[in-house]
Amino acid sequence: MTTPSQTVGPYLAIGLPWEDGPTVVPEGTPGAVRITGLVFDGKGVPVPDAMIETWQADPDGRFDHPDDPRGRVSGFRGFGRCPTDSEGTYHILTLLPGAIPGTGGRMQAPHIDVSVFGRGMLDRVVTRIYFPENTEANAADQVLASVPEERRHTLIATKTEDGYRFDVRLQGEGETVFFDV
Fold first, then answer.
1. What is the pLDDT of residues 89-127, one digit of tens each?
2. Which string of DSSP letters, residue by residue, matches 80-138?
């Protein structure tokens, strides 16, 4: 028998979500985009009780955090949290991030850090969302370049009519690339 200290779920749904968690910026914010996707298990079945957390820079590539080396920017939360619904779908309303400093004075392509929590997972898994229109920045990004070329597509969102789509595949064919953090 598993105990709460041995598994993440189903305890995710008891108090972790909050009402405006999926809205990093309020509805109607100029330039806001919606990122929507599905979370799939290893058999390709949508996961109805996962939790997606996002952390990102603002459009100028700055964070509302005291450790931002360029100085803290205020007024942009940068953090979102959304449980998947009964169909395995999540959504985040946000602004597109700007590039941020990387190692050796190089810039990282605009991206959103994503943590995924779910039943049966003892630890979160961490990935990134990159955006297809940033071709040059993506090609120069040290983190994205460290991923085998044939798997990089799992980190790049698809542009849609009303924003972007980014599906997460936890295991199996087409598994999303996850990073050790």
1. 999 999 999 999 998 989 999 999 999 998 878 889 999
2. EEEE--TTSEEEEEE-PPPPEE-GGGPEEPSEEEEEEE-TT-SS-EEEEEE-TT-HHHH
User: Would 179 be classed as within a structural domain?
Assistant: no
Which CATH number goes with the domain that contains 46?
Answer: 2.60.130.10
Q: How far apart are CA 99 and CA 101, in angstroms?
A: 7
The two structure tokens encoding residue 157:
């969102």
pLDDT in tens, 114-162: 999 988 788 899 999 999 999 999 999 999 999 999 999 999 999 999 8
Determine, yes or no, domain membership for 145. yes
